[in-house]
């Protein structure tokens, strides 16, 4: 696997003479893999609601039909024992039974994939976390503190926030309680992202021109990566897993291979960035849509191919659904979040709801496919509109107080899709129950 070269001698007889020429031959061979569309899963169980099952697409990166098997390392998590990729149509079902699990704690399990096909590897496991709570949240909770940046854990009921200084706070999104503070994480913190499997939090440290790594299992700093360009408050990054390889892409500050931090060659435009959950597509706020892949050729190469540039919005939030067939943006200068085609970046339409007096400034896609659109509604009865996966309006609620507003790009959805958190200019960190 990788890139191999050899010399080959070609000979021919011409008028009785033997003529030879040496040719250099290079063969590029990639690794055939089993891929899970999602590598991190959040489950939850409370007295009034729960999310205890998930179906995950299993594919072969060569597009072939191959057999696979799966196993769970914990008895409370059941999985489909085996299946076939069938050219990408295979599915793995996960089902959790929380009866034996402790209350008000996070329990963990790991799902391991394997293949019976020769030479096929399964590079990633699927990390599963389950929150079993004694109380179902029914009202908003607030932490009346000033924060500037917020990100959610994809598997744990936790959010991570900072105020652009040096420390990071961790909150339980179900209880609203602060559960940890990590001091001296950096000198001047900025944008953040979390690996799709929930292993690592990545944070810009603008003062030291680095990306800081935080192990989320231990909440300990494990290192930092030097950036070729100084990050600023407007720098953005996104973690994704193309072809089963974890990478961190930024908007002008370099692209990195995780966990080594090796600098990759691909470069992306400025503005917000959103990756499809399956790690195949990347969308930028400036309108570029990229096909993302990773190959073992040439020692490991990130492949980024821009395939559409039709969308012309700017300065907004952006989010993608799981397979990248659609993405959503706030940057089309309307009072509603826009629905965009992931295939050609053209606008399909607008989500219903919104307030004609204010522009949307937040958009997020939950793990169940619902789309959350938040705007800067200072005096209306709602500033967040929740849409089902088919685009119909489900419900509304307000995160900010009267005369106050959400901060742009600072609304997140819990990994189980049942809770919302947002930063407002009151200032406060607000937790709101949404439910199924």
Write up what this structure looks like.
By secondary structure, the protein is mostly beta strands. The protein has no helices and 40 strands. The strands form 10 sheets. Strands 5-4-12-11-7-9 form a 6-stranded mixed sheet, with no helix packed on it. Strands 3-6-10-8 form a 4-stranded antiparallel sheet, with no helix packed on it. Strands 13-40-39-38 form a 4-stranded antiparallel sheet, with no helix packed on it. It starts with a strand and ends with a strand.
Structural class: mainly beta
Average pLDDT number: 93
Main pleated sheet = 6 strands, mixed
* Unreliable parts: none
Please sum up the structure shown.
The protein is mostly beta strands and 436 residues long.
Provide the descriptors you would attach to this structure in a database record.
436 residues, six-stranded mixed beta sheet, mainly beta
């Amino acid at each position: 696997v990788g890139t191999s070269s050899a010399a080959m001698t070609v000979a021919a007889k011409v008028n009785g003479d033997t003529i030879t020429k040496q040719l250099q031959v290079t063969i590029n061979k990639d690794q055939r893999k089993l891929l899970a569309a999602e590598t991190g899963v959040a489950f939850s169980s409370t007295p009034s609601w729960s999310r205890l099952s998930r179906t995950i697409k299993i594919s072969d990166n060569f597009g072939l039909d191959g057999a696979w098997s799966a196993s769970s390392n914990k008895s409370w998590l059941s999985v489909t024992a085996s299946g076939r990729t069938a050219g990408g149509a295979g599915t793995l079902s996960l089902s959790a039974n929380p009866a034996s699990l402790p209350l008000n704690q996070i329990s963990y399990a790991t799902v391991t994939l394997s293949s019976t096909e020769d030479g096929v590897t399964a590079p990633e496991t699927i990390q599963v976390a389950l929150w079993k709570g004694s109380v179902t949240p029914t009202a908003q909770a607030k932490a009346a503190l000033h924060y500037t940046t917020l990100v959610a854990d994809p598997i744990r009921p936790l959010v991570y926030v900072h105020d652009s200084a040096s420390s990071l706070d961790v909150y339980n999104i179900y209880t609203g309680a602060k559960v940890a503070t990590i001091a001296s994480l950096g000198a001047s913190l900025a944008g953040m992202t979390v690996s799709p499997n929930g292993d690592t939090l990545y944070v810009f440290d603008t003062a030291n021109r680095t990306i800081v790594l935080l192990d989320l299992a231990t909440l300990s700093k494990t290192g930092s990566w030097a950036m070729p360009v100084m990050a600023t408050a407007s720098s953005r990054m996104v973690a994704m897993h193309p072809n089963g390889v974890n990478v961190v892409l930024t908007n002008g500050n370099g692209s990195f291979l995780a966990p080594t931090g090796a600098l990759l060659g691909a470069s992306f435009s400025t503005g917000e960035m959103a990756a499809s959950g399956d790690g195949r597509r990347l969308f930028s706020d400036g309108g570029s849509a990229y096909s993302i892949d990773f190959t073992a050729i040439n020692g490991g190469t990130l492949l980024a191919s821009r395939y559409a540039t039709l969308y012309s919005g700017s300065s907004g939030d952006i989010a993608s659904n799981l397979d990248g067939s659609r993405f959503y943006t706030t940057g089309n200068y309307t009072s509603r979040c826009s629905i965009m085609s992931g295939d050609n970046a053209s606008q399909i339409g607008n989500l219903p709801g919104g307030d004609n007096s204010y522009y949307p400034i937040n958009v997020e896609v939950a793990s169940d496919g619902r789309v959350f659109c938040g705007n800067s509604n200072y005096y209306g009865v709602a500033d967040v509109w929740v849409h089902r996966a088919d685009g119909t309006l489900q419900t509304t609620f307000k995160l900010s107080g009267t005369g106050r507003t959400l901060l742009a790009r600072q609304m997140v959805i819990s990994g189980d899709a049942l809770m919302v958190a947002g930063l407002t200019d009151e200032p406060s960190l607000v937790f709101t129950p949404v439910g199924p």
